[in-house]
Amino acid sequence: MAREFIVPGRIISGPDALTQAEPALKKMGKKALIVTDQVMLELGNCAKAEAALKNCGVDYAVFSDITGEPTDAMIGAGLRCYRENGCDFLVALGGGSPIDSMKAIASLVKDGGSITGYMGKVIEAEVPPMAAIPTTAGTGSEATQFTIITDTEKNVKMLLKGAVLMPDLAVIDPQFTKTAPPKITAATGLDALCHCVEAYTSRKAQTLSDTFAVSAVRRIFRYLPAAFRNGQDEEARVEMSVAALEAGIAFNNASVTLIHGMSRPIGALFHVAHGISNAMLMKECLCFALEGGYSRFGALGRAIGAAGKSDSDKEASGKFLAAVEALVRELEIPTLEGYGIERETFFASIDKMAHDALESGSPQNTLRDVSEEDIKEIYRKLWQ
């Protein structure tokens, strides 16, 4: 069966990519809204994006009120800023939160309303041009047709989708990732690992997504520890930027599975950063999923050199899982308890989290059938 494969309209990657992107930015419009956060201002990263726009004669306004993972309220404020300043295109600078926010703001520019109105629908609104400049190597949002926004009234992280949300321009400049501290490098890098592993082991996997997924898995296992240990390692930063992009392209076209489905409710209820909650779930979720896809997980074990040709698929799968567990330990990912979450509060929330996880649709992409009770049991195992 024929499958569609969607990527950003244009990708400019590598050292000095932002400078190389100036002519493309100039063609996008007359006034940009830069969607970012206070950290990007403080680190001087926003000043670099502003300079690029000035160099090509493009006016701009800055919306820097993305504080943590985006909510419907932040999106409403961003939309007002866009309109009040007479902008005609958007530039996102930051991790997944500013990029996701840019997409959500863009979806409301023409028709207005609230982003919560898109829950359960495919977004098909007319959107202005969008450019994404990621400053972390992990979320892959610069290469996806998804945005994750919290509905503050229902306390649910909405996974919203639409081909119109794909950025027209993705600028992958590793200079920005050098400002990411070790904990952010670890969290976003493991988020990228989840993207490519889940994409490769999804019921929706396809030949092209497999190519990007396997390449990303190899890069992450090789270069993430180096980027974590030394943030100024140029080679590791460049390779991780590519890996995050590859992983984003992979899951954009093959979707994610159990980990992401279960991660979003933890983030919504306990305000755990997305990459961290993914990493907390990797061991138990992958352990559950192995049974449904030994050949797939085994292939990943061989791809990273954890398993050999003589290993059966089941043996190679086990070795891949062991390698994932070792990587999570090396990157010092905390447990739920270590993060400061109370056991009783967590257990009292399991029913809602399991329901919300299944409602998202992501767990159903897992090669092994997943029930709501299965999800509840995995949540419980996080405390063993």
List keywords for this structure.
alpha/beta, 53% helix, single chain, two-stranded antiparallel ribbon, 384 residues
Main sheet strand line-up: 1-8-5-4-2-3
> What class would the helix/strand composition place it in?
alpha/beta
- Kindly report the average pLDDT value: 96
Radius of gyration, in Å, reads 20 Å
How many DSSP-defined strands? 8
How helical, in percent, are the residues? 40-55%
Helix tally? 17
Question: Whole-Å distance between the termini?
Answer: 43 Å
Report the biggest beta sheet as strand number plus sense, adding barrel if it closes.
Answer: 6 strands, parallel
How large a portion of the residues is in β-strands, by DSSP E?
A: 5-15%
Low-pLDDT runs of 5+ residues are none
Morphology call: globular
Element-level helix/strand string: EHHEHHEHEHEEEEHHHHHHHHHHH
Secondary structure topology:
Blueprint: E1 10-13, H1 17-20, H2 22-26, E2 31-35, H3 38-43, H4 45-55, E3 59-63, H5 72-84, E4 89-94, H6 96-108, E5 130-134, E6 146-151, E7 156-161, E8 169-172, H7 182-200, H8 207-229, H9 234-254, H10 258-270, H11 274-289, H12 294-303, H13 313-330, H14 336-339, H15 343-348, H16 350-359, H17 372-381
Parallel strand pairs: 1-8, 2-3, 2-4, 4-5, 5-8
Antiparallel strand pairs: 6-7
Helix pairs in contact: 5-6, 7-8, 7-9, 7-11, 8-9, 10-11, 10-16, 11-13, 12-13, 16-17
How would you characterize the overall build of this protein?
By secondary structure, the chain is an alpha/beta fold. It is built from 17 helices and 8 strands. It has helices at residues 17-20, 22-26, 38-43, 45-55, 72-84, 96-108, 182-200, 207-229, 234-254, 258-270, 274-289, 294-303, 313-330, 336-339, 343-348, 350-359, 372-381, and strands at residues 10-13, 31-35, 59-63, 89-94, 130-134, 146-151, 156-161, 169-172. A hairpin with a 4-residue loop joins strand 6 and strand 7 (156-161). Helix 8 runs antiparallel to helix 9 (234-254), helix 10 packs across helix 16 (350-359) and helix 16 (350-359) crosses helix 17.
